[in-house]
Amino acid sequence: MERYTVFTKTKVINNTLAVKENIIRWLSDNQIILLKPNEGESLHYAGSRYTDIVEEDWSGEVEFITQKRELRHVLNWDLGVDFFLPDRVVCPKCQKDLIKDIDPATFYGEDNKQQDPNEIKFISELAKGISAWNSGKEVSLNCHNCKRKTLIENYDYDNSLIFTNFAIIFWNWPELNDKFKNEFKQKLGEDILIETL
Ligand SMILES: [Zn+2]
């Protein structure tokens, strides 16, 4: 199983390439990663001082994502999960949680309670929408409560889905120390989520 720590913006941002260059420069100046990527443009090997950010004597690679991605699903697809239920999906126009009554056990096939057909239909559109968004399309979903349309990335998922165009993934590293995580977080600015899996 892959393990990773991801630093992700929780929104789509402007100037992704400039932000990426800035971070690469900072990490390579500190010899955490090598300045030049290997095998393409997005993956960097560790630099000679990677032990400044981990306790152990091994390291993995660092990948930069600068295209639109629904990150949880992209990362979890690697772990063999097609779609999983977000914590909530709140319409920004009417403030209703559009999956409030979905029973997770039933959703995952471990029970068979009666489900609200409107909520089930919405989840199926959300799952299709995520695939389309990940392939670069603009996607809107209709709210089944107020009937209004909203871009998929503008619903409120309470960070249980992350629609972004900027993330940095530390693949197969030992746990990164808190000092580094905090410095990195400050460097990346607001709306950052750090997650280790
Ligand atoms: Zn609504």
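qc> DSSP finds five helices and nine strands in the chain.
qc> done
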